[in-house]
Design goal:
This protein has ten helices and 21 strands. The protein has two domains: 7-149 and 294-328, Double-stranded beta-helix, CATH 3.60.130.10; 151-289, Clavaminate synthase-like (Double-stranded beta-helix). The protein has helices at residues 39-48, 50-60, 73-83, 151-161, 163-172, 194-197, 203-212, 250-256, 264-267, 278-291; strands at residues 7-10, 16-18, 22-24, 26-30, 62-65, 99-101, 104-106, 116-119, 131-138, 142-143, 148-150, 174-180, 215-219, 225-232, 236-238, 243-245, 268-270, 302-306, 310-314, 317-318, 322-328. 28% of the residues lie in helices and 27% in strands. The strands form six sheets. It has an eight-stranded mixed β-sheet, covered by helices on one side. By secondary structure, the protein is of the alpha+beta class. The protein starts with 6 loop residues before the first strand and ends with a strand. The radius of gyration is 20 Å and the shape is globular.
Length: 329
């Protein structure tokens, strides 16, 4: 990959090589001859090198920026804006999050002892982000990595091992069911209440917003609501790369959507309502783990993911850890 006079591509032990040529993810650091001493230089260079960076992201699906003078949420917000992607409001996602500054939110704030399974961001709703940014503001004491994996590789391996299952998935899609409390529940990895999920306190507005996402709401006596999303495709075509991708939250829902209100086994079914085969889901989880890689966070790291190309997860950790996120159309 051609270097330029500001960014230099480096290798780190956790990267994987695909097709004997592509290093995943691409890791960029400051060129040793032009180490930037302030954040505004980084922003200017990102704007100047945007076509080159877009080209890398399209080729590899993920870019890690490491070693740049980025220390605060405002710095991160500046980097996100420098890339120039449109913002996506966080409507319909399951994770509890708080707005920090500008376009920056906390990443999923579920308890540190819980893993967050592999998923494409908001794959269970029709309008999902095309790009995701993560930023390490406080590096974890231990653990807390954000493992990543290429989606088309998972599709290929599942298709090879379970052709009939994948065929059913392509034909029927998936239905996701989740019960949301009225307010956020910080003890749950899917604890976002319906008011913050639909950004309203008005039930009729919530119903309108849900309908736009192909979601039905069933109100319950205790003020909570059951959301039924779908059927929605479980396999998509990544048109820009001309390949099929494993684009769903099936494993995350089936193994991780658990709290006082939700049983994960009932959280996701085939689009015709039939239950999913448990053994294949757990095997898919194994394949995701085998194919993935996890880079330990360092303070100031920015990870940019193409949400169509890459699934991500989160390992449990010992606090403190603060990773921020931003979603783009």
């Amino acid at each position: 990959m051609p270097e330029n006079n500001f960014f230099t591509e480096i290798k780190i032990p956790q990267q994987k090589i695909y097709n004997n040529t592509i290093l995943f993810p691409t890791v960029l650091s400051p060129n040793p001859n032009t180490v930037p001493n302030n954040f505004s230089i980084v922003v200017e260079e990102i704007k100047a090198q945007k076509p080159w960076l877009d080209c890398i992201l399209h080729k590899t699906g993920a870019i890690l920026l490491r070693g740049f003078p980025l220390t605060t949420a405002s710095h991160f917000n500046g980097v996100v804006e420098a890339f120039g992607f449109d913002e996506l409001p966080y409507v319909g996602g399951a994770a509890p999050r708080t707005n920090v500054v500008g376009r920056v939110f906390t990443a999923n704030e579920s308890p540190p002892d819980q893993k967050i399974p592999f998923h494409h961001e908001m794959a269970q709703v029709p309008e999902f982000p095309s790009k995701l940014f993560f930023f390490c503001e406080v590096e974890p004491q231990s653990g807390g990595e954000t493992p990543i994996v290429l989606s088309h590789i998972i599709y290929e391996r599942m298709k090879e091992r379970y052709p009939e299952f994948v065929e059913r998935l392509e034909e029927h899609g998936l239905i996701y069911t989740r019960v949301l409390g009225e307010d956020d529940d910080p003890s749950s990895p899917i604890g976002r209440g319906w008011k913050s999920t639909f950004l309203t306190k008005d039930k009729s507005v919530a119903e309108e917003r849900a309908a736009k996402q192909n979601t039905k709401l069933e109100w319950m006596e205790d003020g909570s609501v059951k959301t039924i999303m779908g059927p929605i495709p479980g396999i998509k075509v990544d048109k820009s790369r001309q390949r099929k991708i494993w684009f769903n939250s099936m494993v995350a829902a089936y193994t991780g959507w658990k709290d006082a209100r939700n049983d994960p086994v009932k959280a996701v079914t085939f689009g015709d309502g039939q239950p999913l085969p448990a053994d294949m889901i757990h095997d898919c989880l194994k394949i995701l783990d085998e194919e993935s890689l996890a880079i330990p966070w360092r303070k100031g790291d920015v990870l940019l993911l193409d949400n169509l190309a890459v699934l991500h997860s989160r390992r449990s950790f010992d606090p403190p850890r603060r990773v921020l996120a931003s979603l783009c159309k």
